[in-house]
Structures are given as structure tokens and as C-alpha cells.
Specification:
- This protein has 332 residues and is mainly alpha-helical.
- The protein starts with a helix and ends with a helix.
- Helix 4 packs across helix 6, helix 5 (162-177) packs across helix 6 (186-200) and helix 10 (256-272) packs across helix 13.
- Helix content is 59%, strand content 3%.
- A hairpin with a 5-residue loop joins strand 2 and strand 3.
- The chain has helices at 2-33, 78-84, 118-135, 139-158, 162-177, 186-200, 207-213, 218-232, 245-252, 256-272, 280-294, 301-308, 312-330; strands at residues 44-47, 52-55, 61-63.
- It has a 3-stranded antiparallel sheet, with no helix packed on it.
């Protein structure tokens, strides 16, 4: 009995030692694959099309016949991709439940495309109602759902990209979790979050443009924006006038030469310190107007004023300052 126990203990120890050696060997192999065995470079590129890992420096094929982790089907357009895909949409902060809940379609049809009977339609409508109630079970989720819908509406009206909407949703969620909403309106915090996210993504919109699509006043947006930035410690750089130039130039239909000239005017103004304390929107509008004149393109102050949503007086004042800065730059 004692001999069998000793033999069993010895066998277990041998198995453990073998596993330990195998683990160390696999770890050393993994470390070796992180760098090229030929030149020692760590610039390894995975080629999923050929199932290989190649060194970007010397071209050595480090690994081959790798497992293809992509789908086993092919799709040639978006509709085929949607039909063949067996997974749902990725999670997103732009939905109050991050897109993880189940939605009941609005079409009153079964799996074969046949219309439902009146009794089944009533049943599906009740299910939709209860499903909507369960998706927003408490006041916090209802608050978030309303705010994210408002953010999506304003971002669509302003033509802001999806990354700005995602950043806005994250900022609003942080404000909601930090209890910054008591005493402030949902629309006000949502609008200020959108204004902050647009500036953080280098696609700024002026406060007047934000106000034109919001349901709150300009003063409340500015006040809430300062409060949210201060409490959440957001790092937002001052808006660069050059970031407004492409949008203004596109809406006015001026040439690429005028756009480049406007950028040059703004760079000269920065060198002379003219931009300090001035509205970036006014400087950008004046630069576009001045550049159009310098390149012999017919753009009126009224047209620039409508696009930039500022007064013609501001354009004239900034216009003269930009030309003076241009002259100072050319003086040796």
C-alpha cells in the first residue's frame, strides 16, 4: 500500500514538472515570435489574407498557415453582409442601454414575410409596449434615453460625425454619474456636452450654431458648458480659427487656392499675435473673405456673414486686422 502511494506521488510530480517545462517552452516561443529571428526587429505585421506574419523590416515570414478567425462566408454588398452575419451590432454609448437589449421590429409580419392576424398584431403591440417599459426601468435610464436622443438630433442638424456623438455620450454619462444634473436641464447639459465634444474632436461649431439647433438659450449653454468642463476636468484647447476655414470655404464654394490663402492669412495673424482675445469664428470668416478678394473671387460680406452666422461689422474689423498683420509679416 505504501509503495503504491509513493509511486502515485512520484507520477504526479513528474506530470507537474512536465507541464511546467511545457509552459516555459510555450512562453519562450511566444517571446521569440514577438521579434524577428532574422533581424531582431519587433515590427511584425499580420497578413490575414495569406495567413502569415511577416517582418516589416527584412520581409521574413515568421509564421505561416495561421488560423483564419474571420467569417467563413463572403459578402459583396452591405445587404448580403447583414443577411449572412450572425452577430448583432457593436455596443455603443449612443444608446442608453449600449445596444445590448432586444428590440421588437415594427413590421407586423412573421418569419416568412406573411402578415399577422389582427389578434397577433395586438399581441405584438402589447409586447412592444412592455419591452419599451423594461428597457427604461428607472428615472436615470429615462433621463439618459431622452438626452441621447436630443444629442443625436442636434448632431445630425449640425452635420457632426459619429465619433463626436460617441464622445458626447461619454461626457453626458460622466456628468450623470457624477450628479451634475440636479438644478440643470437635460437639454442644457446635453448641448454643452456636444459643444465640448466637437471642440475636443477638432470639428468645432460656434456657440451661435449650437444655439440654433438647441432648445435652450445661449447663456444657459455657456454657463453649463463652463460648469461641466470644470467639474469633469476636461482638457479642451482653445478653438483654432483654421479649423473653421474648410467648412466656410465649402459652403461658399470658393477654390482651393482661396482656402490655402485664408490659412496663410491666419498663420501670419498668429505670428503677429492678432488672434489673441478674438473670436476664432470671426477671424476665420474674415480670412475667407480676404482670401477670396486676393484671389479675385466674388464673395460678398453678406454671404460670408450668413455662412459664419456673425455680423458684417465683425468681418470688416477682422479683415483690416488680418491685412495689417500680412503687411507686417512681409516687412523685412
Amino acid at each position: 500500500m505504501t509503495e503504491s502511494v509513493r509511486r502515485f506521488t512520484t507520477d504526479n510530480a513528474r506530470v507537474r514538472n512536465q507541464k511546467s517545462r511545457d509552459t516555459k517552452q510555450s512562453e519562450s516561443d511566444r517571446e521569440q515570435t514577438l521579434s524577428c529571428p532574422e533581424c531582431g526587429s519587433e515590427a511584425l505585421v499580420s497578413d490575414s489574407e495569406h495567413g502569415e506574419t511577416v517582418c516589416d523590416e527584412c520581409g521574413l515570414v515568421v509564421e505561416e498557415n495561421e488560423i483564419d478567425r474571420g467569417p467563413e462566408w463572403r459578402a459583396f454588398n452591405s445587404s448580403e453582409k447583414d443577411q449572412k452575419s450572425r452577430v448583432g451590432a457593436p455596443t455603443t454609448n449612443m444608446m442608453h442601454d449600449k445596444g445590448l437589449s432586444t428590440n421588437i421590429g415594427w413590421q407586423n409580419k412573421d418569419a416568412y414575410g406573411r402578415s399577422l392576424s389582427s389578434r397577433q398584431r395586438e399581441k405584438m403591440q402589447r409586447l412592444r409596449t412592455w419591452n419599451e417599459r423594461f428597457r427604461t426601468r428607472d428615472s436615470k435610464e429615462r433621463n439618459l434615453k431622452q438626452a441621447l436622443g436630443e444629442i443625436d438630433r442636434m448632431a445630425s442638424a449640425l452635420g457632426l460625425p459619429e465619433n463626436v456623438r460617441e464622445t458626447t455620450s461619454v461626457i453626458y454619462r460622466r456628468a450623470l454619474n457624477d450628479d451634475l444634473l440636479p438644478g440643470r436641464s437635460i437639454e442644457g447639459v446635453a448641448t454643452s456636452s456636444l459643444y465640448a465634444a466637437a471642440r475636443m474632436a477638432d470639428t468645432p461649431r460656434s456657440l451661435d450654431e449650437i444655439t440654433s439647433v438647441s432648445r435652450v438659450e445661449k447663456d444657459e449653454i455657456a454657463r453649463t458648458y463652463r460648469y461641466v468642463v470644470r467639474e469633469l476636468k476636461l482638457e479642451i484647447k482653445p478653438a483654432d480659427p483654421e479649423q473653421y476655414v474648410p467648412r466656410f470655404a465649402s459652403e461658399l464654394g470658393i477654390s482651393d487656392e482661396s482656402e490655402r490663402r485664408a490659412r496663410q492669412l491666419l498663420k501670419n495673424a498668429k505670428e503677429q499675435g492678432v488672434h489673441s482675445g478674438k473670436s476664432p469664428v470671426g477671424l476665420a470668416a474674415a480670412a475667407v473673405y480676404a482670401a477670396s478678394l486676393l484671389t479675385n473671387e466674388k464673395v460678398t460680406q453678406n454671404e460670408v456673414s450668413d455662412v459664419a452666422n456673425i455680423s458684417e461689422v465683425t468681418i470688416r474689423n477682422r479683415y483690416h486686422e488680418l491685412l495689417e498683420a500680412e503687411e507686417q509679416t512681409q516687412i523685412p
